[in-house]
Please model this.
Amino acid sequence: MTSVFEYAPAPESRSIVDIAPSYGLFVDGEFVDGSGEPMTTVNPATEEVLTEVATGTTADVDRAVRAARKAFEKTWGPMRPADRGKYLFRIARLLQERAREFAVLESLDNGKPIRESRDVDVPLAAAHFFYHAGWADKLDWAGLGPGPKPLGVAGQVIPWNFPLLMLAWKVAPALATGNTVVLKPAETTPLTALLFAEVCRQADLPPGVVNIVTGAGDTGRAVVEHDDVDKVAFTGSTDVGRQIARTVAGTRKKLTLELGGKAANIVFDDAPIDQAVEGIVQGIFFNQGHVCCAGSRLLVQESIHDEVIASLQRRIGTLRVGDPLDKNTDIGAINSAEQLARIRELSDIGEAEGAQRWQPACELPDRGYWFPPTVFTDVSPAHRIARDEVFGPVLSVLTFRTPDEAVAKANNTTYGLSAGIWSEKGSRILKIANQLRAGVVWANTFNKFDPTSPFGGYKQSGYGREGGRHGLAAYLEGADQ
Amino acid sequence: MIGNDRLAVRKTCKLYVNGAFPRSESGRTYEVTDAKGHFLANASWASRKDARDAVVAARAAFPKWSGVTAYNRGQVLYRVAEVMEGRHVQFCEEVATAEGLSASKARAAVDAAVDRWVWYAGWTDKLAAVLGGANPVAGPYFDFSMPEPTGVVAVLAPQQSSLLGLVSVLAPVLATGCTAVVVTSRERPIPAVTLGEVLATSDVPGGVVNLLTGDAEELGPWLAEHADVDAIDLTGAPASRAMEFEREAAGTVKRVVRPPVTEPDWTADPGLSRMTPFLETKTVWHPIGV
Model:
């Protein structure tokens, strides 16, 4: 769409980031070689190889777990809780000081717009360390039972959609509660985790408290299966979550899972349409739709369907898709060729099943992995694009007539992570929020996160909560909430 | 019988499903004996189909039970304790017989079971205050979290403690607003059968509690893999099969309470640990503005 006011390119400089030609694993406070075949990580916006990263084998994971165990027993466990808190405060400050570096590196490795990595991912990651730093010496007041004790070594496996933020969600509560960690970042986005290792060194964090083992699925499996891991925390797909739950069955390991979602974003006829449209856009196109709690099913009241869709299409026409480092960019690159293929496949199935595909006129770069913002109308609840998690910028639109029908359709999924409600009527919002089987309900807003605010799913979206007082329970002995 | 000894009227032990007392659809029963091996009764031997019927009933009862006010739920649960108290003598005799306890020890167990029920009855309208709250997010939002029931919970009840153990695993499930499908102690089912009669006459809506006398080893796999069961408590699972049940439960991302190594001391303070596994936390955000 041409506009009266064209934007001039406003690229963020990448000069602040030094990417080494290769990276090792971070074990016991040192960067060490991995025994596996090294892998490369690419910039999904250009397909340029950024660097080579080590692959951790079972032996490497074992080394990392032993380092974590030793640190748990010798340094981190016995340490005064107030001092543990101080280390976390240090880390939070270092993340703020190096915020721009983290944001640029995150956008390079992940493909997300700099606007989001700069304004959302990095500040929130720092906020998670600040929040949890304060808990370290206040756990007796957390209401999780008397004298809460850490579990020991936490094995953590995180996804590629929010590489640094998911690290912060996992590492900050684990350390605040006195555990040590072995973290496996996603294979396509390891770089900010490795930069975080640098931050741990700058903070003089004792060796072994945080260990980062890069690699793919096999490395993650080795972390989950290791006998000396006391706690497994996973964020990722429901399929992998099921496998992990199976693996952990019968062991002493505590498990929390943050899995997929297929959130309903419900727009009632009294909603402020312009605000709702902004919320719909934020709900599904934030982070290219690579969000487990994305508002991927729009449930719009039938009487305002045409008006909402027309307004939505007009708004989507103004979204700028392209260079993630450009400060004007709204939608960046799809994270990997594999994910792009999945989005294409599910979209093609959507069309084949009879839904109507709409995409704005939108030029995509020649190289890199791109998918334009997409809206499917005439979607039925049985269509796969209304049931399967696409994990991309693809919105499915369904309609409803009554509040009961909206609730029934919203709950008609095996997932239960999040939902949205748009209405001017407070009593209606509260009633519908009560009836939705989802862990997070955003009313007249969407995709908001905060370390003080518990996040997590119902049903097959997983169990356990991250953030808030509830998130601490996952890392403490005998605390079950 | 001679003299003035009266010939006893024996009771047929049945299941408690959807507010009614059916026999097992399978037509099976099994022999229940007292601690010394003397015949007591033929208990209904619940089948896979009975378990599935019970899940259907528990699912149907869930919207109503989870939807009533916490105050009302507490009232109903307290009423259960009242009716239990009225059956105190019967429970004492049955627990003594089932577990081979002295009269005084059986009485202590029944006292504790009734008191435990009262304790949980008082929790219904306090869980939200203790486990929920407002979240001070860094932005212009009103943001609060509240506990909500997970849904249908399958409970493999303790094998040793026939009433106190059963109450200790069942009452917390109900206090949270979940509905239950319970497989009772295989060897000691009679107090559970009586508890079913108590529940049926205590304003607990039909289907909220379903009691299956039978074998946890046989019914466990079906409940663990059932797609309409949201959580499973493996406390009474046989040690040799518990891992397998937990694995089955992974297929539907069920919430799992793992079995203890040995059956715990049920007189100990339970804390919140038997309610929190069956609660979800829902967080609601709304912008603040004028």
In short: The interface with chain A takes residues 130-131, 133, 135-139, 141, 143, 145, 150, 230, 242-243, 246-247, 249-253, 255-256, 271-273, 276-277, 279-287 of chain B (CB under 8 Å). The mean pLDDT of chain B is 97.
